[in-house]
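Weekly modeling sync, notes
Attendees: S.R. (lead), two postdocs, one rotation student

Agenda item 3: backlog of single-chain predictions. S.R. asked that every request posted to the team notebook include the full sequence so nobody has to chase files. The rotation student volunteered to paste the first one in as an example of the format we agreed on. Action items at the bottom.

Example entry:
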Amino acid sequence: MRVGGRFRIVFGGAEGKDHDVQGVYKEVVPNRKLVFTWTWPNSTPERESLVTIEFRAAGRGTELVFLHEQHFDETVRDNHRQGWSEAFVKLEQFLRGEMQS
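Predicted structure, as returned to the notebook:
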């Protein structure tokens, strides 16, 4: 992970179709902050948004401050809000050992 480096994530959707997202790291501050672009190359490659994640010490753990901005329109924003919210619920369940196989 480095500034200018790229990432690609492929994940399955509810309808059994794979989703492909890609981006470029814009800022990398180890243990503190990540900033990267977010695009869907197979559906809307011209729509690039920006994700910022900050990591802050919180008691015995870490607080994650998450911002996804520069969306194409309100519908895209709302769809990302729903997707990220579902992902964070699953992450919390996983970290608490509550995920079922």
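Discussion: group reviewed the output briefly. The longest helix spans residues 74-95.
Action items: rotation student to repeat for the remaining queue; S.R. to check formatting next week.
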